[in-house]
Amino acid sequence: MVATLEVTDVTPGVTCCAPLVKKPLEQTDAERLAVTLKALADPARLRLLSIVASSAGQEACVCDLIDPIGLSQPTVSHHLKVLTEAGFLTRSKRGTWAYYRLIPKALEQVSELLTSA
Amino acid sequence: MVATLEVTDVTPGVTCCAPLVKKPLEQTDAERLAVTLKALADPARLRLLSIVASSAGQEACVCDLIDPIGLSQPTVSHHLKVLTEAGFLTRSKRGTWAYYRLIPKALEQVSELLTSA
DNA sequence: TGAGTACATTGATGAACGTCGATGCTCAGT
DNA sequence: ACTGAGCATCGACGTTCATCAATGTACTCA
User: Domain of B80?
Assistant: First the structure.
């Protein structure tokens, strides 16, 4: 049988391993989880994620994010890119606006890895 | 001389705010949560935490952590300090050995902040 | 076509971080 | 007191990161 392994490369996701407290993390798994957590470990990105998450449809456009965050537009754009590449947000462009939407499952997966549940 | 049963300085904890997705994080709360997450966002620290968590009594001494991690002793010591200051571990010295123990509640609190639960 | 808006990318800079070797400190035996 | 073991701290070095101004790109409307 040919093992056609499915590479869903779009969103990394963190479905990598057993919960942190269950059994020692392998180096590779630790590195992947660290990358994901590093994307969260910034005040600006946490606030961006939080604002998007509590917006209508868990979605917001960049123009509505710049002022509340209080950083320059390029910086906000940079943070949104980091969050998107980490799999927490998706980007969809409508007209001249770019809308970012939350991927709730991403946060849940991270959450589950941190507990024994 | 004094028998040192070391009560580690009370840990910050992350009981700061509502779940991330419920309502926009304030700057102060975002900064505190970011500091906590930054402590987790490193492969070596994730592995250390994981090894300690899956050890007997969720406790391990430094000497048992150096080899599995594959880093120098000062570096391991540094990471353990970061995790301790972030409230994930406690330190107790017995003889010449330093034992680090998991604080399970710390991980749970972080976990809960990332979901709407 | 031309101008303006919304957003991304680039390049640069200063700060923070991970890592190590060297050293200091404390405890247990001898 | 001396020696060695276990661990923490210090100082230094290279890398990564957050941030911004300047610029580029894509779209809208007149």
Answer: 27-108
